[in-house]
Specification:
This protein is an alpha+beta fold. 68% of the residues lie in helices and 8% in strands. It has a 4-stranded antiparallel β-sheet. The protein starts with 18 loop residues before the first helix and ends with a helix.
């Protein structure tokens, strides 16, 4: 008997509102929600790290170490003058002794007298927009012309931030792979359970000539709808959460906590690309659910 001669069913081969179906929807929703949170967190961390790297890369610091017999103010002025004349340099700001001492207050506390300590003097140098000055050449010039002056381009800090962002991305990808694997296992067990429950119906369909593809198609459509339902619930919840976090972060702009959070994570907005990624995950998990179900049915029937 051909597929076209098969009888029509008034009820689906796989019941839609079974306990196992509702449980699978809950599992898929949880997995999609956690996967979306992971993706959003990776986007936030990567974006914040990129901004940090960009800000740090556009600024270098010159440190002048005090020493007996040195006129520290004259040395600082000379270092600032040499730096301002260097091509590609935008703004040069020399910190006074009091300003340099205040930079130590977060670690040493306030009220301490640092007059007897050789507190280094700092010069903050901002690179001109669009310029790419020869930092090694500037470092050599300072070493030759300004005794006691050293230049720090924060390369070590940039490398650490780049490594942190790479680690966050790798961890996010690893978590997503584990969640997809867990979803595949859940769908596999749910499909086998549904086949066991409908074993008699499947045997009758085989007896009247139904092919494996016909039976697998019913299971695939059933689990595709379950995957879309669970994915929509989990992905929608994640989108609402990110939208609320972005709105709350804007509400607290200007406060100490809000400024600190903005410095670490930006505006808590994953942007249009982030929301598209979440929707893509919903479709991906639904497709994985359907394909896994079909493959499980075919392997079991064979």
């Amino acid at each position: 008997m051909s597929d076209g001669a098969l009888p029509r069913f008034d009820t689906p081969l796989v019941p839609r509102n079974s306990i196992s179906g509702r449980s699978l929807v809950a599992v898929v929703a949880i997995m999609t929600f956690l996967a979306s949170l992971t993706t959003g967190a990776v986007i936030l961390v990567s974006g914040a790290a990129s901004e940090w790297q960009s800000d740090v890369a556009r600024e270098v610091t010159i440190q002048v170490i005090p020493a007996p017999g040195r006129d520290i103010d004259a040395i600082v002025d000379k270092a600032a003058t040499v730096t301002r004349a260097f091509p590609g340099i935008g703004e040069v700001r020399a910190f006074s002794k009091d300003e340099s001492s205040k930079l130590l207050e977060p670690w040493l506390g306030s009220g301490l007298s640092l007059d007897t300590l050789p507190v280094p003097r700092l010069i903050v140098v901002k690179i001109a927009p669009g310029a790419a000055p020869d930092i090694p050449q500037l470092r050599r010039m300072l070493a030759e012309q300004v005794p006691g002056a050293t230049l720090d381009d924060h390369r070590g800090w940039i490398d650490r931030m780049r490594a942190m962002a790479g680690t966050a991305v790798a961890a996010g990808v690893g978590i997503l792979i584990l969640m997809i694997a867990a979803t595949v296992l859940s769908v596999t067990f749910a499909t086998r359970g549904a086949m066991a429950t409908n074993k008699t119906v499947i045997e009758v369909l085989h007896f009247v000539g139904a092919k494996n593809g016909f039976i697998a198609g019913h299971f695939q459509r059933h689990f595709l709808m379950l995957g879309l339902e669970g994915g929509a619930i989990g992905g929608g919840a994640a989108i609402v959460l990110f939208a609320l976090a972005s709105a709350i972060s804007r509400w607290f702009i200007g406060t100490a906590g809000g400024d600190q959070s903005a410095a670490l994570f930006g505006s808590f907005s994953i942007g249009v690309a982030g929301y598209i990624a979440v929707l893509g995950q919903v479709v991906l998990i639904a497709a994985v659910t359907a394909i896994t179900s079909r493959q499980t049915v075919n392997r079991t029937l064979e």
